[in-house]
Structures are given as structure tokens and as C-alpha cells.
Amino acid sequence: TTTVHKAGRTFNDLEDRIEEQMASVAKMPNNASNRHVTTPPSSRVTAAAVSVRSKTPSSSSSSSRRSVTPNSRSHTRLNDADDAESGRVRVAIRLRPKNTEEILSDADFFDCVEPQPELKKLKLKKNNWSSESYRFDEVFTESASQKRVYEAVAKPVVEGVLNGYNGTIMAYGQTGTGKTYTLGKLGKDDASERGIMVRALEDIISGASSPSDSIEISYLQIYMESVQDLLAPEKVNIPIVEDPKNGEVTVPGAAVVNIQNVDHFLQVLQIGEANRHAANTKMNTESSRSHAILMVSLRRSVNDKEENSTSFQGKDDRSVLVGGHVIPTVRKSKLLIVDLAGSERLDKSGSEGHLVEETKFINLSLSSLGKCINALAENSPHIPTRDSKLTRLLRDSFGGSARTSLIVTIGPSSRHHTETASTIMFGQRAMKVVNFVKLKE
Ligand code: ADP
Ligand code: MG
Q1: Which side of the chain, N or C, has fewer Cβ within a 10 Å radius?
Q2: In this model, does residue 129 exceed pLDDT 70?
Q3: pTM for this one?
Q4: What is the CB < 6 Å shell around ligand 1?
Q5: 340 pLDDT more than 70
Q6: φ, ψ at 407 (rounded to 5°)
């Protein structure tokens, strides 16, 4: 039709760059069908977007494949609303407010993005007469509060974790667009500024309040394919271990802190931040060139009373068989909150020595993440998680019954139009991930 067209003609260079960034990612059919010109009536745009969704694997095929996943036995315990949340990447986009420099001296540039939160669309303007709209699960303007972002994007993942399901919350975007603000802001002076890490722990601490429940965290950084411990900075190159029996991914060499309360967590996080800063100063690099990963491991006991009162909704990891009935006793789940390295164009030319090496590794992990997302979107039987440390760490928190949210962050200025467009495209690809399953390679 004339209402939806592949914008490749005008965005050729951008497409090339994404191809380059995502290395050998297979080109998806209907590559541009989530993209729309802005002129047609919005109803058509919505219909087109819906039809993209319907092209994804049918629920019957996904549920039959899901039946082979380890969590399937208890998966049916989730209600329909929960079910719709699992196996699907929720993608949100957040616009950062203008900074001082943009307000004072950005006269040669214009505001190139226009969020339309009610329509869940974002308009990207090339110039005054040409723009395109992109659909997301959530669209946040520059005035969206931390609380709103948390509730719309992170809370469903955290609720899954409290019910025994693994989950991942990631932020992707150019350096300076608000990834760390969104995820890692401590808000020590103003609790309303607290980011997703602190809010998630608040909810997990209050949700898992039984004395036998335990909340343990590790805080890691991946820099140049080396896993480093932000809570024990002398530890570098820590191995990532995958249990061959149940696929559980652990980092047994990393320091683990048992979290008692929110203040305790804030202190631990602050130590991690200080170590991150010190490590990067020592290595003479920027924190934007590494991934920071907060790993929260939750263990909850489920007693008979709870089971009988059917308040138990999640999966069970260790179960006992009593009189032919499975009585779950312990539920284990894991939440990963991932502040990704800056997605800005990482040129091969222009930089030297150490920077070239850094760049190669960042390209490797971000392109490997992109490949996994695309493979999941295509329901491919092979999810290439082995290619980078980042995706190996994400392996069991990604797909199957796990819930995943991706927040893409952008700035307002046309100065960074190309980077912004590239970030939007990454988010658009992730939007296609529906009902993927946890697969054995
Ligand atoms: P990144 O981690 O993506 O490099 P930061 O989170 O460090 O970016 O954000 C860059 C700057 O912009 C910081 O000073 C941060 O406080 C500010 N900032 C980012 N997003 C917001 C926001 N939504 N509201 C207010 N300030 C923000
Ligand atoms: Mg940052």
C-alpha cells in the first residue's frame, strides 16, 4: 500500500550502519514495516503495527514449544495478563530533557524528536518537512518521572521475579542520553529521583519479607570481554558458568552481598559506583565503554499453607513429591539490570591502539545482543548467546518464561540525529520479539 513504505531510500546510510553494527544479522522480512510515514491517518498506522505483531509465531506454536522449557510445569499458574508479559521484550523509549549546553548554544540544531505518549509513537524529524513515526510499547517525554518509567517498564519484570521468573531490564543508547540516570540514579537527596535499580530492590525487599527469603546481589562490569567485580575490584576475568543440567547461569567467583534493607542496598550500590569510577580511571577509560550489570538473586520459601491457599503463583526450582502432589519448597529467580555501553558509532578509523581494541569489544557485545534479539524475534532454534560475555550472562534471563524490558534512551538535538535514528532502529528490531522460547543450543 502507499501508507506504509520501506524508508530505505531515504535512510539508506542508516540501514547500512545498522547492518554494520549488527554484523551478520539476517535481514528480517518486512524490515521496515514497523516504520510509518507520518502523513496517513493514525488508525492506519495502528493497523499496520498490529499486523506486524500478528506475523509473529502463533500462540499455539509458541505454547507447544514452551512445553519443553524447564519452567513450563508451573507456567500455567500465571494468569493471562502475566502470560502476555512473558517471553516478550517490552520496548520503551525515553527522551532526556535538554541540557544546559543544548539550551544555550545549540542554535544551529533543532529538536529532532517529538514523543507522542498517548499514541505510543515517537516522531523523528529529518528536517522541517520530513519525519517518520515509530511505535513503541511506551513512549516517555522529557518530563516523565522516574516513578512512571519504573512502573510502566520495570515493575512487571520485578513482579515476575517475585513470582519465581527470571527477568532482565536493559538500557541502550548513546552516551549522555540517560541510561545511568534511568537505571542507576541513587536519589540520595531526593527519593523521587531514584532510578530503576533502587526501586526494584525496594519492591523486592517488601515483596520478599519472610525471614526465610534471601536477596543477594552481585555487581559486575564487563570491559573488553573481561568480567570484573564492582564490589571486589581486585577480581578480574571472572568466569561465567552455565549449569549443564538446568541451564542456570552463575558467576560463582563474584562477591555476593546479602541485602537487608533499602539503605543497605544504597550503600552497596554506592561502593559499586565508586569502584566503577576508580577502575575506569585506573584503566584510563570511560564508564560509557563498559557494561554494568546488577545481578539480584532471590530465593523464596514456599510453605504448605501458602500452597494450600493457592497464593503461590510462580515456578518452583526444588520440589518434593508428597502423595502424588508436587509441593514446591524453594523458588529461585534472578533479575539482571544492565546499563549497556554507549551505542554511539564506534569508528574503526580515527581511533588508535587501545581504543580500537575497546571498540572491537563493544561492537562485539552490542552486535551479539542485537543478533540474539533478532534470532528470538524470528523464533530461530539457534540463539547465538555464546558470542560475547554479555549475552552469555543474559542467557537464562532472556526468553522462555523470563520477562525482558528494554529502555532505549535518546537526546533531543538534531546534532545527534544519526545516533538517535540508529538507537530507534535497535529498539524497533527488539519490538518484534514476541513469545520466544528458551532454547538449547
Ligand atoms: P548515560 O548513562 O546514557 O551516558 P546519563 O544517565 O549519565 O547518560 O545522563 C547524562 C546527563 O543527563 C546526566 O547529568 C543526567 O543526570 C542527565 N539526565 C539524563 N536523563 C535525565 C532525565 N530524564 N531527567 C533529568 N536529567 C537527566
Ligand atoms: Mg552511563
Answers
A1: N
A2: yes
A3: 0.79
A4: 96-97, 173, 175-181, 288, 409
A5: yes
A6: -110, 120
The three-point CA angle 416-422-426 to 5° equals: 145
Q: How far is the CA of 413 from the centre of ligand 1 (A)?
A: 14
Q: Whose CA is nearest to atom 5 of ligand 1?
A: 178
Neighbours of 80 (CB within 10 A): 7
Q: Which three cell numbers stand for residue 209?
A: 519479607
The per-residue pLDDT for 339 is 97
Q: Please tell me the distance between residue 256's alpha carbon and the centre of ligand 2 in angstroms.
A: 23
Q: What is the pLDDT of residue 401?
A: 81
The three-state secondary structure class of 320 is strand
CA of 176 to the centre of ligand 1 (A): 6
- pLDDT above 60: residue 73: no
**Gap between the Cα atoms of 99 and 25, Å rounded:** 35
Structure confidence at residue 363 (pLDDT)? 83
> pLDDT tens-digit profile of 211-228?
899 999 999 999 999 999
In contact, 88 and 435? CB cutoff 8 Å:
yes
Q: Which of 96, 101, 103 to mutate to test the pocket of ligand 1 (most atoms within 8 A of CB)?
A: 96
Compare 261 and 14 and report the one with higher pLDDT: 261
Ligand nearest to the CA of 177: 1
Contacts of 181 (CB under 8 A, 6+ apart): 96, 195
User: Quick one: which ligand is closest to 171's CA?
Assistant: 1
